[in-house]
Fold this protein.
Amino acid sequence: MKRPKVSLINLANMLTAFRILSVPFLVYLISIDSGPPGLAGDYGKIVAMFLATAAGITDFVDGLVARRLQVETKLGKFLDPVADKLLVCSLFVLFVADGFVAPWILIVMLFREFLILGLRMHMASEGAVLGASNWAKFKTIFQVSAVVAILLVRSLQVLALSGVMTVAWVSMIYYYQVTQALILVSLLFSVVSGAEYFMEHWHVFKRG
């Protein structure tokens, strides 16, 4: 029995679109001072943390929704990892400027992401879709977790400097260590998943 045609405008794709559309708002909230100069009163950073958390949740929900409602589309399979790259790469660039992420980590990560994006686009031109491997899914989980953890640290800094929470300084030190661990683990999964993609699809490059 032939499967009925699935509309491109469905809940799963809308969740993915939300993740993409959240990126410019996150970049804006993280980049500007929403209060006086400095972090004190800069509650935009806290809004960014909640928005990033919501965007991260959609990353785990959209695929589940697509499978449960049987609304999987080639567009959705293509846009889902692209949305992840836009979200993570854009924010990691800002985190390098803030000193949370070492520049060499960003370089390795961007190199891997652009190579895989090129592979994905090449396969798409041939009518094939490069899905996310298990290693890549773990990479995304740790990257998104690192993003939320870093924004949590910034939010705690805002609350501490604003005099709202005195214990925030202690929490901030603890969560800073957590962010560094998450970043390093995500980098490991990034390298491993990238190598896996190329070993499995090396024939694409040999074919030209």
